[in-house]
């Protein structure tokens, strides 16, 4: 797999990025729901809840893919850990 500027492979970076943005958006949508409720627009509040649920599902799916990738070296920065070395060991 290609390694991006971060040292992580591109697919891992992309999944982490999508997961972050989905979780961040989901957090923001809570305010949108409250705003719509305060305006008496329960139909719009329900729409925001649906969008929030979709982002939650996206974040969860990213998490599953990242877990699946965890069995390879794709989830640690390339070149950081020598083959077989414990990445948590202190020098």
How would you describe this protein?
- Helix content is 63%, strand content 0%.
- By secondary structure, it is mainly α.
- The longest helix has 29 residues, at 10-38.
Largest β-sheet summary: none
Q: Given the structure, what is the number of helices?
A: 2
How much strand content do the residues show? under 5%
Which residue ranges are poorly predicted, with pLDDT under 50 across at least 5 consecutive positions?
73-78, 80-91
Q: Class by helix and strand content?
A: mainly alpha
On the 0 to 100 scale, the average pLDDT is 81
Q: Shape from CA axes?
A: elongated
User: Fraction of residues in helices?
Assistant: 55-70%
End-to-end span in angstroms?
29 Å
SSE succession: HH
Please provide the count of β strands: 0
Radius of gyration: 19 Å
TL;DR of this structure?
The C terminus is likely disordered. The relative contact order is 0.17. The chain has 91 residues and is mainly α.
Please write out the topology.
Layout (H helix, E strand, L loop, with lengths): L9 H29 L3 H28 L22
Helix pairs in contact: 1-2
Q: What labels would you give this structure?
A:
mainly alpha; 91 residues; 2 helices; elongated; disordered C terminus
């Amino acid at each position: 797999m290609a390694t991006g500027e971060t040292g992580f492979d591109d697919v891992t970076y992309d999944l982490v990025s999508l997961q972050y943005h989905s979780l961040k958006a989901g957090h923001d949508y809570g305010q949108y729901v409250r705003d719509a409720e305060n305006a008496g627009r329960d139909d719009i509040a329900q729409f925001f809840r649906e969008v929030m649920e979709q982002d939650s599902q996206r974040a969860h799916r990213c998490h599953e893919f990242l877990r699946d990738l965890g069995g390879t070296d794709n989830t640690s920065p390339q070149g950081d850990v020598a083959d077989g070395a414990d990445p948590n060991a202190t020098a």
